[in-house]
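so my prof wants the structure for this chain in the tokens format not the other one, which i didnt know existed until like an hour ago. anyway here's the sequence
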Amino acid sequence: MEETVFFNLGNALASKRDPKELIKEAQIVKDNRDPLGKLVIVEDEKNEMHILFELDDQLSASDQGEAFKVKQIIE
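here's what i got, hopefully its the right format
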């Protein structure tokens, strides 16, 4: 599923170095927010971080967003 997506880091819901911990965080976010669209976990390869975004916050390729590799989509 190696897809590149663009997001503004200011829209991140959470970030962690350990992807397993971020999956737990994603479940907490999903349980506490309604309505909530799909969540996506991306990897910031430069900083070795995994970041959680709401998929609806995705940007088109531009200078306003940063490119990330999709690691997991949570529905």
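also thought this was worth mentioning. The chain has a mean pLDDT of 89.
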